[in-house]
Every structure is written in C-alpha cells, then in structure tokens.
Design goal:
By secondary structure, this protein is an alpha+beta fold. The chain has helices at residues 3-9, 21-28, 103-114, 203-212, and strands at 82-88, 91-97, 121-122, 125-127, 133-136, 165-168, 180-183, 195-201, 220-221, 228-236.
C-alpha cells in the first residue's frame, strides 16, 4: 500500500474516538490513528522502554477549556515578528512565528496563548515511526478538543515539514482550531497542514521527549514522558 493511500485512510483527530474498522486495521500495521493524518514508512521503531528525560512534575492547575463562537479578529501586525515559548514540564521550546505567511494561524495562536488556553494542557500524542511529531493544544487531551471555532488553511503551497517545524493539526481542509504539532525529525507529510513557525531553541527537549517513546509501547500515542504545557506565551519581538 502506498504512503498516499495510507494517508487517505487514516482517521483524523476529531473522529479518533470512534474505533472504526479502518482504525483497527491500521493498528495492526503499528500505527494508531488518534490525530493528524500520518504517512507511514519502513523505519526503525523507537524502543518501548522509556529513556531518561528531564521532565518534572507539571505545574499545578487545569486547562480553562474556554470556547468561542468565531475566529478572533485580526490583532497582530503581519509585518512584525512574534516569538512563542512553550514552557513544558520537560523544558522550554522557543518558536519564531511566521505572521507574514500564516497570518490567521499566528493571530489565532497569539490570541489563545493570551487567553491562557494552552496552559496546563497535555501534549497528547507522540509519533515515533513514519513521521516524527509531538502534538499538543487540546485541553481535553483526547485529540478531539478545540476552541469552538475553525479557520482556513494557509501557507500550503510547497509546504514541507523539516525538523523544527510547527504546524496545525486538522480534521481535513479548513478545520484548524487549537491543536498543533512540532516536528522533531524531518517528517514526510503531504502539504496539508499549515506551517506557521520554526523552533529556534529547545530541540533537545523535543528529542528527549521522543526518545522516551510512547506510553503503551506502540509507535503512536500518549508520550511516555508525560508532557504538559505549564504555560504558553506569544509576544511581539
């Protein structure tokens, strides 16, 4: 089966709660469909035995779970630079946001960060085979949560996903919400996920999380490291 066919057959994050026949058959192939579509390939599987990480206990608190009926109005300066910091219990990851190429995406991310929407949320998914991403941004930690609004894709022409890319997870075209993923190793994804920034510091944090593997020993699922976004900030440079 080609990687393109496999990608089309995968169950997206907002439907992953229903274990369909397709979901079960893909699990036999070693891929759990619980978030953005995957492209599988013949690569080595990270050992199920968790590696040592620098993760500590998460900060006290719970996600606020706020909801909004519509995408926020544009408040960022698309000609300016913005820096996001993911302060996780495993260390900080700093990201340069690309407001000029993905203005609506960056505007939404900055808005949600300002509303403390991401604070105390778990990164609910790590993939260690085929593609290599850490997925976060869902206050329900199920792969099915969001802020109540959606907005269109951006910046897809010629999009690639090298290590350090941050991009939006989605449930199909035009369904962006709050879930995003960070690529810790070059990922052969199709240009279907809005890339909106690059990691500028903290790649060692991501690779350490990935080295710990998946909690259930598979190649796709909840991170064994137990990653929590203690806080997320996004500021104009």
């Amino acid at each position: 089966m080609s990687s393109e066919v496999q990608a089309r057959e995968l169950v997206d994050g907002r439907r992953a709660g229903r274990r369909s026949v397709a979901w079960r058959s893909l699990r036999i192939l070693g891929v759990l469909a619980v978030g953005v579509a995957l492209v599988t390939s013949a690569t080595s599987v990270v050992s199920a035995a968790p590696a040592q990480t620098g993760c500590g206990a998460p900060a006290a608190g719970q996600p606020n779970g706020k909801q909004w009926p519509a995408e926020p109005g544009m408040t960022i300066d698309t000609n300016a630079g913005y820096t996001a910091t993911l302060a996780t219990n495993c260390g900080a990851v700093t990201i340069a946001l690309d407001a000029s190429r993905a203005p609506r995406t960056v505007n939404s991310f900055v808005f949600l960060a300002g509303e403390q929407y991401f604070d105390h949320t778990k990164c609910h998914r790590i993939t260690t085979e085929g593609i290599y991403v850490l997925q976060c941004g869902d206050p329900t930690a199920t792969g099915m949560g969001g802020p109540g609004y959606q907005f269109p894709d951006e910046n897809l022409a010629g999009a690639t996903y090298p290590a350090g890319t941050i991009a939006m997870a989605n449930a199909g075209p035009g369904t962006n919400g709050s879930q995003f993923f960070v690529v810790y190793r070059d990922a052969p994804l199709p240009p279907s996920y809005t890339p909106f920034g690059r990691v500028t510091a903290g790649m060692d944090v991501l690779t350490s999380i990935a080295a710990a593997g998946v909690k259930d020993g598979s190649s796709d699922g909840e991170p064994a490291a137990g990653v929590v976004l203690n806080s997320v900030s996004a500021v104009r440079d």
